[in-house]
Amino acid sequence: MPARRHAIAAITALELILATFAASEAQTLTAKQSEAAATYERALGDFKAVLAERRRQIDTKQPLPNLPGQALYLARVAVISSYKDLTDAVPSKIGRPNKFEIPPAYFDADIEPLIDEYSKLFDVMEAPPANAQNSPTPFRDVVDLAAAIARAKGLASDHAEAAGRISLGLFYAETNGKQNVRNGRSNTYMGSFQTGPSEDRNGRRKWEAIKGEIAAASPELSARDDKEEARARGTDYRFNHWTNVRDGLMNAHADVFRDIPGIVKTLPDPIDQMKLFELIQIVPTPTRSALKSGDLLNYRVSSPTIMKHLRNNSIFAFGQADRAKTSASYREILAAMWLFNRKFERAMVKYAEIKPR
Hints:
Radius of gyration: 26 Å
Distance between the termini: 94 Å
Structural class: mainly alpha
Strand order of the largest sheet: 1-2
Largest sheet: 2 strands, antiparallel
Number of helices: 15
Strand content: under 5%
């Protein structure tokens, strides 16, 4: 009997220890949840404050700070990041789908009006300069230029059409399909394809090298090019829609057009194709290396600089878990580009309207 009483007492003590440990763990988790909720509320308050400040400055015609969109962008990142941390800590906080097609774990649909205001402010801050040279057919221009360049690079008609569709996706990715815009977060990258001065000059040189082939194959397009070249002369070529699209494609993407036959086999989804070419825009060197590797989707990047560039373009940018990643395969990178999905879907709709017969 004494032995049995000792055994029961030992079991009771063990149960008490386990219960105490469980209670302590629950309290720790609750503290983490509370901290995550408070962090989100602070980020949301900061986002509302900077939105209100920019709106007041614009409406009262006050001078805007240098790079007026950067504070807005960082505040939006903080809201999405802190909400993801909150839903990681409290999964029940994951709510309904939202019109921006952001995964609900990253975004509370109740704040959709704040993102609408964010977009409206950027429309004002990035409005084209007064001397911008618009095109009456901006979407058709992108498709026609890309297809003509692809044919000059030796692609068959179906793959040249893919180049046109992909390039239309780039137009939406860079500017939401708005021509000749400025950049609220940069004093370097401007225009429909958001190029820097050196990129624009490099693209122009490359265009001159194939202009004869373009003229022979597409005399009407060549005549349009001559007209736009004359119109843009003496100005910043990045604020003529035609010349900026032309030079942007020639600078970064034209040489990769040759890889389109292999790309469409590896990535049959047109939106994934657009994502890959957007990565040529964001991180060109590793993306070209990945294409040459023979194993595109499993090619990994681990450079801190490259990971930083990806985060600065809304890839692995939101939440502690995503931001802690020190490397990623291209399969993972493409999957993490969900913020681009809606833009590329809009490009697909537009392409269906204007695609070549």
